[in-house]
Amino acid sequence: MNTHTPIQILKEFWGFNSFKASQKGVIEDVLAGRDVLALLPTGGGKSLCYQVPSMCSKGICVVVSPLVALIEDQVNRLKKQGIKAVGLTAGIPNNRLIELLDNCQFGGVKFLYLSPERLQQSMVRERISQMNVNLIAIDEAHCISSWGHDFRPSYMACDLLRTLTNAPLIALTATATLAVQKDILKALKMQDPKIHKASFKRDNIVYHVKKVADKNYYLTQICKKANGSVIVYVNSRRRTHELAALLENSKISAAYFHGGCSKEYKKKTLALWLKDQVKVMVATNAFGMGIDKSTVAAVVHFQIPDSIENYYQESGRAGRDGNQAHSFLLLGPLDIEQAENQFIQNLPSLKEIQKTYTKLSSYLQIAYGEGTEKSHYFSFNHFVHRYELNSIKTFNALKTLDQYRLIQMQDHFEKSTEIRFICKKEVLYNYMETHEDLGLFIGVLLRTYGGLFEYQTKINPYLLAKKINCSYKKLESILQRLKRDNIIDLDTQSSDLSMVYLVPREDNRSLAPFAKMIEKNTQEKIHKMKAMIAFVQNNKDCRNQQLLHYFNEKSTSCGSCDVCKSSGDLSKEALEETETAILYLLESSAMDSRKIVAQLSYEKERVLNSIQKLLMSGKIIINDQNEYVKP
Ligand code: ADP
Ligand code: MG
Is residue 372 located within the same domain as residue 501? Predict the structure, then answer.
C-alpha cells in the first residue's frame, strides 16, 4: 500500500491546506528518523508535529503529557477526526487498563497518551515494548527540567521509553530558555538531535506596562475601547466575579471563568464569548487550554503574573488573526511590593506541604497505607474552612503534591445533596397523612434509598424529580420544606475538586524523597517571579526585546511598546546616533563599557542604554575579556 504524504494526511484528517512554516522542517526530520527537539511558541501547532508523521507510517505513537485535561483534550480531538486514540491517566481500573493496552497492541490504535507515572508501572512498560511504536513524543517537555516553570519529577521516567523501543523521539515545548533545552536533551538521551526553534516574536502584539492609580477605571477604558474580545487575567476566583460585575455596571458585557465553575457554566460562557455575545472574559489562569479564538484584541493582566513564561503565553492569546492587538499589565502603586511579598509568603514550606497532605488525608478519611485508585470529590473551600487554612498557600501545597505525583488533582464541579430523616418513623407517617402533597415524594424517597433513618445518604435530585414528575427547582423547594418542618436533615454541598491518591498515604515518608527538589524548586519559583518584576521595572529596554532576550532570541526594538513610545520622545535619531557611534568605535578594537563611555561625548546613561540595545539586537556581543565587540 502507498503510504500517504504529510500534506495528504493534513488535508484528509485535519482539513488544513498547508503546514505552518515551523511545522514543515520538524515533520521532515521526524520522518527521516531523527530525534527532534521542537521549541515552538504556544499555539504554534506542536501537536501536528508528531501526529502527522505518525499517521504517515504504520505503528503507534506513544505520547507523554503531564495533565489529565491535556490528555483528554487531545484524545477527544483525534477521536472526532476518526483517528483511534487512547489516554491512560490515573484512576483507570485494572481490567479496563488491560483492555485499552490490548487495543493499542492489536486494535489499530494510532496514539497512546500517557501520564508519566504510568511509565512506572511494569505492565505498561512491558506492553509498550511489545507494540509497534513508530514515534515517541514527549509533549510539554520542559516538565523534565527543574529550571522549567512546571517541573514534574515523574517526567524523568520518560527516558524509560528509550529502553522499550528504538523509535525516534520528538520533544516539544514552548519554553525556550537554554537551561531547559540542555536538561531536555540530556534527560531524554537524545541522540544527534535536530533542534528546531521557531521565533517567539509576535510582531502584532503591542506590550504596555501601565502604572496607574486606579486600575479599575483604566480596565474599563481598555475594555470599552477594545476592538474585539478581551481577556482579563486576575489571581483569584473572587476577583473574577468582582471585576466582571464592575464591567457589567459600566455597560460592558463581561463574564467570569475559573476552575471552580461548573462544567455546564464553563461551556455556556465560553460559547457566548466565542460568539462575541460576551466581550470580556475575566478569568484565572484556568482559562487558557484549548482556547483558540483568533480575534482577541487585548489581554489584560490585572496583577503581576508569576513568571515571564506565563505572562508571555497569556499575552499571546491576543492577535492570533495577525491584526494588531494589545497586552496590558496594570500596575497599581503598591503592586510590585505586594506581588513579591505575597508571592513569597504564599509559597508553602516543606513542613506546610506535609501538613496539608496529612490534613487532606484525614479530611478525605484515607487511612495510613491506603487511598489509591479511587476518586475523591470535595469542596476546596470547605476543606480550608474546616482546618482554618490559608487558601492560596493551601492550594499551592496541593499543586505541589500534584506536581510530585502523590496526588492527581483536577477541577471537578458537582453539587451533592445528602439527607437523613431526623424524626421518628411514627411522626413521619403522621406527617405523610397530613401533608398529602408531600406524601408521594416521601414514598418515592423511601423506596429509592435504604437506610435514610440511619445514615446521611446522598440522593440524586434529578432522578427523584423525574420520578415524581416535577422540575428540579420544585424538588429543591420540597427538600427545603421538609427541612423546615424538622423531617429531614439536609446537607447540600458542592464539590469543585477531584483527587486521586497516586501512592498510598504515608504522610511524611511519601514526601521525603522529594524534599531537596521541592526546596530547590521553591527557590526557582522565586527567581522566576523576580525576573518578572525586573521586566516590569525595566523602563529602558523595549518590552519585545526584553521578552525575546529572556527566550534567548535577539531582535531589534519594536517601536510601539510603552518603552519604545516613551523613549521615542527622547528622539529616535538621537538614539540611533549613539548606536552608530558605538559601532564605529568597536570597528577598531574591543572595549568595555567604561572605555566606551569615556570615548564618547554623550551622557553615560544614554550610552549604557544604547549598549544594552545593541547587545539585545545581536549587533554587538561580549568577548572572553568581558569587552564588547562586533560579531
Ligand atoms: P501548541 O501545542 O503548539 O500550543 P496546538 O498543536 O495545540 O499548538 O495547535 C494550535 C492550533 O493551531 C490548533 O487549533 C490547531 O488546530 C491549529 N493548527 C495547527 N497546525 C495548523 C495548520 N497547519 N493550519 C491551520 N491550523 C493549524
Ligand atoms: Mg500543545
Answer: yes
Q: For 516-568, what is each residue's pLDDT tens digit?
A: 888 888 888 999 999 999 999 999 899 999 999 998 888 888 989 999 888 75
Query: Do both 163 and 206 map to the same domain?
Result: no
Choose one of 332, 359, 387: the last residue of a domain.
332
In angstroms, the CA 412 to CA 517 distance is: 29
Q: What is the 3-state secondary structure (H, E, C) of 612-629?
A: HHHHHCCCCEECCCCCEE
Ligand 2 centroid to Cα of residue 356, in Å, is: 31
Q: What digits encode the pLDDT tens for the residues 99-121?
A: 999 999 999 999 999 999 899 89
The DSSP-derived string for 570-625 is T-HHHHHHHHHHHHHHHHH--B-HHHHHHHSSS-HHHHHHHHHHHHHTTSSEE-TT
Q: In whole angstroms, give the CA distance from residue 370 to residue 373.
A: 10
CB of 113 closer than 6 angstroms to any ligand 1 atom: no
Query: Does 184 fall in a domain?
Result: yes
For residue 379, what are the CA distances in angstroms to 284, 412, 414, 496?
18, 9, 9, 5
Helix or strand run (H / E) with residue 263: helix 263-274
16 lines ligand 1 (CB under 6 A): yes
State if residue 316 touches ligand 1 by the CB under 6 angstroms criterion: no
For residues 87 and 71, is the Cβ–Cβ distance under 8 A?
Answer: yes
Residue 621: CATH number of its domain: 1.10.10.10
Is any atom of ligand 1 closer than 6 Å to the C-beta of 305? Answer: no
Tell me the H-state helices in 332-403: 335-345, 350-363, 380-386, 391-403
What is the residue range of 581's domain?
569-631
Domain match, 246 and 355 both: no
Beta carbons of 172 and 140 less than 8 angstroms apart: yes
Q: Which of 18, 24, 39, 47, when mutated, tests ligand 1's pocket best, judged by the most ligand atoms within 8 Å of its CB?
A: 47
Distance between Cα 139 and ligand 1 center (Å):
14
